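Mods, move this if it's the wrong board.
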Amino acid sequence: QVQVAESGGGLVLPGGSLNLSCVATGNMFSYYHMGWYRQVLGSRRELVAAISASSETHYTDFAKGRFTVARDNAKNTFYLQMSGLKLEDTAVYYCNSGGFLRGDNYAPSMYWGQGIKVIVSS
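Not the wrong board. Structure tokens:
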């Protein structure tokens, strides 16, 4: 069973930066494709960005130029680095471990973190 946990959320001023981390258990982390999603109350969960086992990346349009994903296989950790945050970035952010990224499409697995709040507000 894969266990996934996010950390690093919080309250940020508009225009500020925040870095999220996702740790996935297991010895097979280097094989996992990973995805960051976010969900606003009353809306569908949407993909933010994803990374493959070979560090191929994909970003949803709203994230391009502002957000960056990276991975550290030695730490079983997947990162979402956010800058230039906007009010509309306020959401619960979820990490998905073990999906599949091919080109512009990330197919999520059943393994999700519990979610972490990001609030952008002045």
